[in-house]
Amino acid sequence: MDIKKSSNDEPSFNHSLSETNYSPSTSARDLPGVISNDDVVDFIQTTMHLHSCKEFLRIKYPSKITIPDSDEIAWCSLCLGPELCREMYNLEQRSDQQLPAQRIPLLSIVIHLEQSKIKLLLEYLHKWFLVIGMTDHLSMWLYSVLICVKYCKKDEERDQLFKILFKDLRKYLKKCFGYRQKQRAVLFGDILKEWFLVKIK
Q1: Where is this region: Disordered (predicted)?
Q2: Which of 35, 145, 150, 152 is most buried, by the most CB atoms less than 10 A from its CB?
């Protein structure tokens, strides 16, 4: 995983999804039960590192913006941009509603999200994915939010969301013609299978 830095040298989780060469063939394993794909291994290592030093990272990268509560439109604007948000929610171009500026998932944002907020954002990202597909910004946010999921905690509601997302990723692969978009969908599917142990009968 590459670390992308903003103008003030603050890192974000950026898997360089537009550059990855990940494809279905690379998910093959050399041995049963051994994860051989570097992209999935990289995700797991990053996740474990983040959760092992989460409090330190929160101090090092304090929150610099007002994080939306449960406002779906505000989150959409922050993750995908005001212009796309207005289009998706049929907001008037000159609406008086103030929309947050678009952000990449910097550590000063994602490291401060509690699990309830992460689950809510996962629901929103899934909803937007069904509308716009695996775009650059949606992929970056989905990757970052999945890293922040507390992997050792059982959550039936969240696990059900993972199953639905996994099914929709498989449907997306059947109708998607974009090479990069397919790569991203396959990667997320493998992350759900290998790390979050999503099983679909």
Answers
A1: 1-30
A2: 145
